Automatic annotation (TrEMBL):
Pfam families given in the database record: Glycos_transf_2
SUPFAM superfamilies: Nucleotide-diphospho-sugar transferases (SSF53448)
Name this protein carries in UniProt: Glycosyltransferase
First-level EC class: transferase
Enzyme Commission (EC) number: 2.4.-.-
Organism, as annotated: Candidatus Electrothrix aestuarii
Keyword Transferase in annotation: yes
Database matches in Gene3D superfamilies: Spore Coat Polysaccharide Biosynthesis Protein SpsA, Chain A (3.90.550.10)
Domain Glycosyltransferase 2-like span(s) in chain numbering: 18-131
Swiss-Prot/TrEMBL keywords: Glycosyltransferase, Transferase
Domain of life the protein comes from: Bacteria
An annotated Gene Ontology molecular function: hexosyltransferase activity
């Protein structure tokens, strides 16, 4: 497992926010992301752009933006080029180069609300124990700009318990970190090509002294032109990476003694369910990995749901197919209540200028 080898330096510039932006062939989009940082009501900010081997005009576009908009010490852009190694490697390089007391990751095709960094900095500065902040975000159609999904933060719930229940919807841009937490979390996993944000956030929450979740929508993710989370889960590699995230959660469970029994039981039950879905696809090796994690996490025993799922898991592929059928049926019955518009179709009427 490639987790990088270097740790970020502990020295920092007080109150500075480092926005770490990996990019690859985003010459046509990165200006929108950079502009969303420039429009922040907060200063000082540094933007660490790490170009992961782009072959288009990304370098020229970024340099041109830097000449136009860098504001001396209040808004500084630093551009770094590396041979193509993936977004996690680019984020790790950005972390190593960063100097900020607070860390915000932002992909080069996404946007943050103008007040986001001011709100985050205010929370960090008001309470020195807060080292992780999670906010709401929405997803907008890359073609027409229409919001097609909304994910609110859950301020009334413990964030680790949310993750154990499988209800944490991590996204690179919705989380912010105090530098000390980023150092304790360690580097991004450079082996993972999907779910790497989930794995990193899980490790961070496990190390955090105090987490704060905001319901407000303070960021926007561009949707379209790539695989969705559900698509990744349909592939063997994607399911493998998802199980790596669950392994990271298991390590958190092992390290923490303050996790309630019911949260551990729900995690174990969910892992047996994930194992059943793996079995249904004929991936018995992945199913065994899920069952192994579930067993290690359920030292205090399983709840009734977990016991039923464990029994179904023992039935092998047939148990998995039955479980998947029931789960898919429930999903279809509740699809109308979904916060994600899976049937979105662009029309000329809804198309608009996203940058405006």
């Amino acid at each position: 497992m490639n987790m990088g080898t270097r740790r970020i330096k502990k020295d920092y510039v007080q109150n500075l926010i480092s926005v770490i932006m990996p990019t690859y062939n985003r010459a046509n989009l990165i200006v929108e992301a950079l502009n969303s940082v420039m429009r922040q009501s907060y200063r000082p900010i540094e933007i660490q752009v790490v170009d992961d081997g782009s072959t288009d005009a990304t370098s020229e576009v970024v340099r041109d933006w830097e000449r136009k908009y860098s504001e001396n010490n209040d808004l500084v852009l630093r551009y770094h080029y590396q041979e193509n190694a993936g977004p996690s490697a680019a984020r790790n390089k950005g972390l190593l180069q960063s100097q900020g007391e607070y860390i915000q990751f932002l992909d080069s095709d996404d946007l943050i609300s103008p007040e986001r960094l001011e709100i985050l900095a205010g929370i960090f500065q008001q309470d020195p124990d807060v080292d992780f902040i999670h906010t709401g975000f929405d997803g907008f159609c890359a073609d027409c700009g229409e919001v097609i999904e909304t994910h609110y933060g859950k301020p009334d719930q413990d964030q680790l318990e949310v993750a154990l229940k499988g209800r944490l919807w991590p996204n690179t841009l919705r989380s912010a970190f105090r530098r000390s937490l980023a150092a304790a979390t360690g580097p991004w996993n450079e082996e993972m090509t999907c779910f790497e944000d989930y794995e990193y956030v899980v490790r961070a929450i496990g190390k955090a002294k105090k987490c704060v979740a905001l319901r407000e929508i303070l960021a926007s993710a561009r949707r379209g032109g790539g695989m969705r989370v559900s698509d990744n889960l349909r592939t063997y590699q994607g399911r493998t990476f998802r199980i790596m995230c669950e392994s990271a959660l298991l390590e958190v469970i092992r390290e923490r003694t303050d996790i309630p029994l019911y949260a551990r039981q729900e995690f174990s039950s969910r892992l047996y369910g994930l194992g059943l879905r793996c079995n249904a696809r004929g991936w018995s090796d992945l199913g065994k990995r899920c069952a192994k994690i579930a067993k290690k996490a359920s030292a205090g025993g399983l709840d009734a749901k977990g016991q039923r799922r464990r029994l179904a898991y023992w039935l092998g592929k047939w148990g998995g197919l039955s479980y998947k059928f029931v789960g898919d049926l429930k999903y279809q019955l509740t699809a109308s209540k979904s916060i994600i518009n899976t049937d979105h179709v662009c029309s000329e009427k809804t198309k608009k200028n996203i940058e405006a």
